[in-house]
Amino acid sequence: ALVSSKGEMLVKVSTINGKIYKGDYLTSSTIPGVAQLANTSGKVIGLALENYESADTSAVNKILVLVDIQAHFTSDPFSKNLLFF
After folding, report:
1. Number of other residues whose CB lies within 10 A of the CB of residue 44
2. Three-state helix/strand/coil letters over 17-75
3. Considering the chain, what percentage of its residues have pLDDT values greater than 90?
4. Distance in angstroms (rounded) separating the CA atoms of residues 50 and 2
């Protein structure tokens, strides 16, 4: 198993918390080893570098992520994506 605390790498993701767009913050999910969209304040694992959407929320796929574990504060739900503006 690969372990990284910083840099670009493929990360398993799910749409449990919604579609993932490039620039979205990702956090851990209820599925061990799988990330999800971070739409509340808290710890994040990094930024999505690719889009991912699936109607099946139990589906898991890998996308490229800029891993940078840190705390993230979301003041409102529209500021979750850095590239939105």
Report:
1. 20
2. CCCECCCEEEEECCCCCCEEECCCCEEEEEEECCCECCCCCCCCEEEEEEEEEEEECCC
3. 71
4. 20
